[in-house]
Amino acid sequence: MTTTGLPPIADNGVFSVSASSLIDAPQDRVWSILTDFKSYSEWNSFVRQQFVCDASKRPLDDQAPTEGKYLSIAVHLPPTMGEPGIFGTGSAFVQITALDHENHRAAWATASLPSFILHSERWQALSVDPVTGKTKYETIEVFNGLAAYLVRLFVGSKLKLGFQAMADDLKHRAEES
User: Fold this and answer.
1) Angle at 176 between CA 108 and CA 19, to 5 degrees
2) Residue 145 CB partners (closer than 8 Å, separation 6+)
3) End-to-end CA distance of the chain
4) Burial degree of 168 (CB within 10 A; 0-12, 13-18, 19+)
5) Which residues contact 48 (CB under 8 A, 6 or more apart)?
6) 43: exposed, middle or buried (Cβ count in 10 Å: 0-12, 13-18, 19+)
7) Average pLDDT over residues 94-114
8) Residue 97 C-alpha from the chain's centroid
9) Cα–Cα distance, 173 to 139 (Å, whole number)
10) DSSP code per residue over the chain
11) Is the distance from CB of 160 to CB of 145 less than 8 angstroms?
12) pLDDT reported for residue 147
């Protein structure tokens, strides 16, 4: 683990996207919002839909995230609460690789392609900022494989906007009374 609370990044990653925000709300409240995937459409301008599913992408009745389960993720690129423009959507199919409720950390990795074509791993973590005492949200995703070069070229800048939008949207949602 690095001093940021996130796991170390592989030096051979093709590229990575990260974002953070300081949130004036308790960690447990922020974690509850972050892991309530059903509510994403209400507040998250980047990840518009995310649900727990089986390996064939069928939604599960139990939407509680658990290590080993899969997620189907739909995003707006660039982030928007309204209708995206043409080519303004994207999707991912991932497997939850870490879920630590006690330490407020979650991770998932691509599950739909061989890793030499595309492999990505995303981490999200909450910690207490030592200066402000606020909850610090941090997220990073590292992309590898041949297709990572295309992802970076075609949507890399939009992913950066999306990650920061999600961090900002999470802050706004958690700080609401």
Assistant:
1) 35
2) 14, 113, 115, 116, 117, 118, 119
3) 33
4) middle
5) 40, 41, 74, 75, 76
6) middle
7) 94
8) 13
9) 17
10) --TTSSPPPPTT-SEEEEEEEEESS-HHHHHHHHT-GGGHHHH-SSEEEEEEE-TT-PBPS-----TT-EEEEEEESS--SS---TT-EEEEEEEEEEEETTTTEEEEEE-SS-TTT-EEEEEEEEEE-TTT-PEEEEEEEEEESHHHHHHHHHHHHHHHHHHHHHHHHHHHHHH--
11) no
12) 97
pLDDT at residue 112, rounded to an integer: 87
Instruction: Please report where in the chains the tokens 């599913």 appear, as a residue.
Output: 53
Tokens of 112: 């739909």
Token pair belonging to 58? 């069928």
Model pLDDT for residues 84-103, shown as the tens digit of each residue:
988 899 999 999 999 999 99
- pLDDT above 90: residue 3: no
Nearest to 71 by CA among 89, 92, 48: 92
How confident is residue 76, by pLDDT bands cut at 50, 70 and 90?
very high
